[in-house]
Design brief:
four-stranded mixed beta sheet, four-stranded antiparallel beta sheet, 1 helix
Amino acid sequence: MLLDGPLGPDEHYITLLLHNKVGREIRVQPSRGRKGGYVVPKSAFLKVSMIFPKSSAVSEPVTFDAKDLETENDLEINGDVKKVSIRPEEFPDEVINMTITAPGE
């Protein structure tokens, strides 16, 4: 039996569930993908699905950072003020939870 094309899916995915625990609107900015990032309303959730062609997906992870839209201060993602790196995966139903808080909360 012959298979046409490369083995595996043609696309890779990052699926995020962003939880804004800050009392104001925030922006989560990926290093590639949506240029304006993702705005999450105050005290709300936002599900984000990113799709990458297989060729570019395997090369490098996507880094994310979060900022307070009002103060432009850096925010914590899962308890740390730093960029979070995520490598696109083959399965779109793998959801990564990110809780965004103000430093010291």
